[in-house]
Amino acid sequence: MAATYSNCHGCSLCLLSCPMWLQKRDVTFSAQGMARALQNGAQPQDLAEPLLSCLLCGICDLICPEKIDLRGMIENGLRRLDPDLVARRAAACPAEDRFDASRDPVLLQLLGPDDFYVIEPRSFHAHHVERVAHYEALRRRTGCGMNLDLHRMAIPTGIEHLGEGQVQKLDVKQQIQWLLKGRTFARIVVESRCDQALLAEITGKPVVHISELIGSENAHA
Amino acid sequence: MSASDPSTSVVSTLPPCPVAPDALIAIPRQQTNPARWQGAQWPEFVAELERRQIQLRQQRFETGVYVTDAGGLAHGLPGGVVVARNAEQIAALLQAAQQFEVPVTVRGGGLTTEGESVAFGGVLLDMTGMSRVLNIDSEQMTVRTQAGIFWHLLAEELRREGMDYLSAPLNLTSSVGGTLGVGGIDVNSAKFGCSADQAVSLQVVTPTGLIVECSDEHNRELFERVILGYGQFGVITEATLKIRPYTPLCMHYFYYGCLEEALEDLMAVDRSELCDYSGILTMMDAAVTLLVAFDCQNDVPQEASRQARFMREIRPKLRGFGELRFALQLAARYAWRPWRWKQAMFLLKRKRELFPDLQPGHHMEGGNMQDRTVVFSRAVWKHWGDRQMVIPDLATNAEKFVEAVKRGNAVCKKYFPYYTLYCVGIRLREDHRPHYELSSIPPDAQGWAYGCEFEPMFEGVQYSRDQLQSFKNEIYDIGVDMKTSYYRFGGMMKGYIRRALGDEVVERHLKMKKKADPSMILNRDTIF
Question: Are residues A151 and A182 in the same domain?
Fold first, then answer.
């Protein structure tokens, strides 16, 4: 039988890379906090704040030693709050899977130590086992920065959360500050078009989409 | 007078324990607090917190989050939860708690195994709400951080600056404050000492609600009591810790079929002071691994590196084998013992599962390990974590170490088919000897102390609480007999403190505790 929230025993591992916990520093705002609250009789309305703060980035699913479907748990809670919310979010900023583009050999010449490469987290985490070694190798070979944390999870920008008409609970600017803290770069390369405009506005640096980067190189060739 | 013979004790002023005197059969103990807190003055206390604008979470779905600790054997519910936000808030909370005599249990990562961070009524103070890094000083090589931070998160922040902490428990979710309160052991503790010894200064909220900065120079007495003080003398709210430049790690593993030889070699390796990391990890006593590792030294010629010197001077003296030769030796040993093939299959399965996780490709570069904090800790959770964790331990001086581990190993064998031993050395700081009093550091240790954890691997088998408790007791009885100390001696195991360390030292600390915490509210029942 698949593990559910009732299998959570509170190890706290899911807090470590969770964007909302990192921002709020309150266990209520984590997959563990929600699972334990559900074990103790919480209703979705009781958890509205954390549910609406979650970026659905999928990191918690990867890190949970009990292999609980935590993202599914959160999506269920969101659907009970607002039946269309999950679908509206996905439509506002679809997860762009640019893995194939990232494997284009030309990228090794185009990326360098002055670049900061932002992996699209949802598709990356959905295929983490198969993809993590590739991105880690790309980072080492080009010397670029990347939105990977020590667990080699992709830190989301949170921008995909800003779609029109969505309830916004997480401070995206604060999330981006954490993402870029201590990083030095002259240019940002993104896999998700959703990230492009706001990252450029906040950082004042050029932000290019990976397809534009590769496309321009191919045009030159 | 023998500490293990309470009938002859004349020092203690306490009456015999009136609370479940037979809770631990054959273990006489004394209870400082005559009874568990029963909720007296709770409504008045709650009203006072409201007046002071301290948010108290009292709904069941909020308090139930904290129902147990990593041990998973002690269960209790707080009456309310306060998420720590700043020292002033904690000071106000403790002042109100003193006034209304309401117990406050402080919790960091909740990684205790004996219920020390489980609240049985009263307030639970969740310190993870104070987990921000305040300042990284690359010149002084220190970091100032809020104490509720997980070591992993501290590593994450330090890495952005090319820095690393000195030593921390191999556990991602231990908090800095909780660790400084009990010790903190890493595989580099033989070089750097326990994590608590890397604290330069602390901000502490005393049990009566004063906010005090303390260090070896300022408020030294408080510093001595709070470090390794099991949370009895204050809440650590901020800490300044030593840091160092980040370096990848070069790992070496040596394999032994003889536990005693491996233990002796571990101590020889530590005495050589040529390696940066050392420790022993076993699968029962059948496969004993001595881990030796080095920080990468890119600034010195290869032949002059510590690693090269170690390989020249120490490696030839070690009795451990490389992986292939050890595998052949094991195969030969099991080939003639078909009744032990089940164990052989277990070893093989364990090796196949564990080894790749100790060198995952995306954390290895040029044969060196990146971010050991993540690699080791995730392996620990994946391969040793469980819903219930029973990890009795013995902490001894170097002379008693081999015998203590051998005796503990025999107890493990008696109770469980599968288990692990984890052994490390801990470098002691002579100037911190007062810190070590009434702690896991054995009073008779000189130079290095040694610790061994005895952890059963349940492999899906359900063991009764009685069996697990009996196992712990039998390990701890070795400590009483050999006059050692323990890492996990609080909570459910506190009955052993007086037996192992003696009434005199406990009484002295109790007197200090009563003076510092008149209503005995802070982490009550954990130690005294």
Answer: yes
Q: Are residues A32 and A67 both part of a single domain?
A: yes
Would you call B110 and A12 a contact, using CB atoms and an 8 Å cutoff? yes
> A114 in contact with B at a CB cutoff of 8 Å?
no
As given in the structure block, the two tokens for residue B261 are: 């030889």
* CB atoms A15 and B159 under 8 Å: no
C-alpha neighbours within 13 Å on the C-beta side of residue A172: 17
Give residue-wise pLDDT tens across range B197-237: 999 999 999 999 999 999 999 999 999 999 999 999 999 99
B385 within 8 A of A11, measured Cβ to Cβ: yes
Q: Domain holding A209: CATH number?
A: 3.40.50
> A26 and A129 in one domain?
no
Of B159, B161, B173, the CB nearest to A12: B173
Do A102 and A194 belong together in one domain? yes
Structural domain range at position A201: 98-219
Q: Are residues A40 and A117 in the same domain?
A: no
- State how far the alpha carbon of B262 is from the alpha carbons of B138, B281, B414, B422, in Å: 39, 10, 22, 12
Backbone angles phi, psi at A175, to 5 degrees: -60, -40
Verify whether the Cβ–Cβ distance B132 to A25 is below 8 Å.
yes
The residue type at B184 = G
Judgement on whether residues A118 and A209 belong to the same structural domain of the protein? yes
Looking at the fold, whether A211 and A122 belong to one and the same domain comes out as yes
Q: Which two tokens stand for residue B164?
A: 């690393």
What is the pLDDT at residue A96? 86
Residues A144 and A86 in one domain: no
- DSSP at B138: T
Query: Which of A11, A136, A150 lies at the smallest CB-CB distance from B373?
Result: A150
Q: How many domains does chain A have?
A: 2
| Residues 118-157 of chain A whose Cβ lies under 8 A from any Cβ of chain B | 132-133, 136, 140, 149-152
pTM above threshold 0.90: yes
Type of residue found at B213: E
DSSP per residue, B244-270: EE---EEEEEEEES-HHHHHHHHHHHH
Q: Which of A92, A111, A127 is the last residue of a domain?
A: A92
CB A102 within 8 A of CB A71: no
Strands B393-397 and A187-190: unpaired
Q: Residue A133 and residue B362: Cβ atoms within 8 Å? A: yes
| Residue A12 C-alpha, separation from nearest chain B C-alpha, in angstroms | 7
pLDDT score of B126: 98
Domain boundary (A35, A57, A92) is at A92
Whole-number Å distance between alpha carbons of B405 and B409: 6
Which of A62, A116, A150, A181 to probe the B interface (max B CBs under 10 A)?
Answer: A150
Strands (E), B408-447: 419-427
Query: Which band of pLDDT confidence, cut at 50, 70 and 90, is reported for residue B20?
Result: very low
